[in-house]
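Ticket opened by: R.M.
Priority: normal
Category: complex prediction / small molecule

The reporter submitted a protein together with hypoxanthine and asked that the result be attached to this ticket for the collaborator who will pick it up next week. Submitted input follows.
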Amino acid sequence: MTTSIAATAAKLQDLFGAAPAVAVVLGTGWSGATSLIEDARHLAYAELPAFPQPRVEGHINEIVVGRIGKQPVVMLRGRAHTYESGDCAGMAGALRSLKAWGVQILLQTNASGSLREAMQPGSLMLISDHINAPQRSPLVGEVGSERFVDMNMAYDRELREQAQQVAAARQLDLHQGVYCWALGPQFETPAEIRMFAAWGADAVGMSTVPETILARHAGLRVLGLALMTNMAAGLSAEALTHALTLRQAQLSGQRAAEFLAALVASLAELPSFQP
Ligand code: HPA
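Result attached by the on-call engineer:
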């Protein structure tokens, strides 16, 4: 693993030069953001030894490197989900390679089910904190005291404030709340959703949490954005299907992608983030 991370970082450096400070993981519905990248260059995960080869419908597995406004960025299309293999560390190699290359900030995006009436499908939620419902960690087997990662403020306060300012400037209603990871691939039962709600969850989905843990362990700053594609199980009469989440993701994806691009561009001005 360590050798493939070094080789992957070296290849990224060879092909693209100095690392962009910002990496974005594009979840379901968010991939339109790649079309907003200027001077975009594409590379398949297959060319990067430490990257995963996920196979979820609706995902293309490639990185796109370029810039948005003044901000250089690398976007990852396609992530390894725990439900594909049972392995929750599927993104470890990719995230550690990005860090080794020189990336500092990880913006994570996903599609989620909403537990809040006020957050109807199409809404965007800034992740303020998460619940690791399966209580699984991609750091099991790691050694050294760094594995005891502080998860206070896992989602960077300054980046969240920045996201709220960008949303306000665009008059976009950006909710904020707690994301609960469910392993999947089956959707939740209504009883599980009632339990997650009692725990304090506002949204539920099948990704993001393992990557946030890996990113914090690697020393990356993290921001999370969730696009509500449906009301969670039991909260609407509609049957939950993958097709429904993809359809809603398509309907709202462009607005989400434009907001994401504006946020990335704004990071070039972030006080803590001047080269
Ligand atoms: N549950 C879990 N994952 C999801 C959902 C959901 O309702 N919607 C989109 N991803």
